[in-house]
Amino acid sequence: MSTTAIVILLGLILVALVVLIVVLLRRRPSSPSRTPDSPAAPKDPFAPGDQVAGDPRTLKAGDMVEYLGVRYFVRGSVRLREGGFTWSEHLLDADTIEGTKVWISVEEDPDLEVVWWTEYDIGDMTPSERTLTVEGVEYRRDEHGTADYTSEGTTGVGVQGRVEYVDYEGPRGKYLSFEQYGGGPWEAGLGERVPSGSMTIYPGGGS
User: Fold this and answer.
1) Which pLDDT tens digit goes with each residue over 30-88?
2) Does the global pTM surpass 0.90?
3) How many CA atoms lie within 13 A of 164 on its CB side?
4) 59-77: b or e for each residue (b if 16 or more CB lie within 10 Å)?
5) Cα(86)–Cα(107) distance, rounded to whole angstroms?
6) Residue 7 has pLDDT above 70, yes or no
7) How far apart are CA 118 and CA 190, in angstroms?
8) Which of 15, 113, 139, 144 gives 170 a disulfide partner, CB atoms 3.0 to 4.6 angstroms apart?
9) Taking a C-beta distance cutoff of 8 angstroms, is the pair 67, 114 a contact?
């Protein structure tokens, strides 16, 4: 065989190999495309889910609340509005010693704050002073205003109306609050901020 023929044959073999490689590469299944891992969405460390089990902003009559090992049913709610600011107060079914009422207040200013309230007999005390001492704790007046309210379920107040309030703040998450519904007598409660993770909310039927 001549040298020219050998060169032509080698060239044909080389072309055939190239074509075969191209065909094999096209038949090879393509590997799935990799997408970069999506970065975790930013999360508010003080979001309601980290403070309590359930969202206290959705509390309503019929829900159940477990706090410090005791379960309570929400009997009714008072929804309050002053200008563009709103908050809620919820009456619980279980009373403390001698029938004292128990409430939970829920507000965002701007962080979510849940406070546990017990009714307090103020006697002749009125919210006229800048500081008041109750049971050895000194409270300083923090807020004073008038809000419109509507009520749901059993609350002990009218369906709607206006309420004047005066809030005092004490040390270590303690509060004293006065409320006067429809120009009636002053009512007062002592409050303590609900610690993170100490409350569980069970939605009632129809939620």
Assistant:
1) 444 444 555 666 654 445 444 457 889 999 999 999 998 888 999 999 999 999 999 99
2) no
3) 9
4) bbbbbbbbbeeeebebbbb
5) 7
6) no
7) 6
8) 139
9) no
Q: Cα dist. 45→97, 109, 198 in Å? A: 37, 16, 16
**Encoded amino acid at 181, one letter:** Y
Question: Which residues, 6 or more positions from 113, have their beta carbon under 8 angstroms from its beta carbon?
Answer: 105, 106, 107, 193
Record the tokens describing residue 194, joined without a space: 């609900």
* DSSP secondary structure string for all residues of the chain: --HHHHHHHHHHHHHHHHHHHHHHHHHSPPPPPP-PPPPPPP--TT-HHHHSBS-GGG--TT-EEEETTEEEEEEEEEEEEETTEEEEEEEES---GGG--EEEEEEESSSEEEEEEEEE--TT--TTSSEEEETTEEEEEEEEEEEEEEEEES-SS-SEEEEEEEEEE-STTEEEEEEEETT---EEEEEEEPPTT-EEEE--TT-
Q: What is the model's pLDDT at position 196?
A: 78
For the cut 80, the answer to whether the pLDDT of residue 143 exceeds it is yes
Give the residue extent of every domain in the chain. 58-202
